[in-house]
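Dock heme C; give full complex structure.
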Amino acid sequence: MNRLPLAISLLALSVSAAHWVFSTRAQAPAAVTKPPNVDFERHVEPQLDLGKCEGEHAVDDLDDLMKHRFNPILTKISFELYHGQKEVPERLEEVTKHAENLLGCIAQVPRLKQDLDPERTEDFYKLLSAMQGNVLGLHTASSEFNEEASRHWFGHLRQDCSACHIRFNPHQAEAP
Ligand code: HEC
């Protein structure tokens, strides 16, 4: 890995905003609280500088992001947590990378989801913030090589996918 390992703490999820404090292990306690409230971006931290949202196909809309990023990343994490053949530290190191990538992808959502009914915007971003919180939890657990905690956060993460799809995915019936 060419990135510094990051220890991330989720401080608080308020009704309309998520506030995160980050500290690097190397430079504790230089915590930075992101400035809040730029329109819809207040709901999700857009620039975590953690992941680039990498994947195999180009992403032009939310459907692409879901199919070519969210979904395969979730599958890869599940594989490492439950089916990987390597030693635990190696598998959790992979999980940490995938979690970072997923955080980068979450940050792409506000740019790609522009057709929200204003009355439902809050709800949508609350669900996305909840997911972000659980990916951060997973990231912390996997970077501490805690397999049990990683599986715990992963369980929540799975539920976040369905929670949002029930309300917002028009193709819910076809969803995996
Ligand atoms: C905050 C809301 C939200 C969250 C959280 C979310 N999705 Fe989605 N997802 C959507 C919406 C909306 C669509 C429909 C996109 C479209 O077609 O425009 C969608 C579509 C999809 C699709 C395309 C197939 C289908 O059912 O249409 C897949 C696959 C998918 N999501 C996977 C995931 C996975 C895996 C997660 C969790 C890691 C996840 N999503 C989390 C909102 C969400």
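Observed: The first strand starts at residue 6 and ends at 13.
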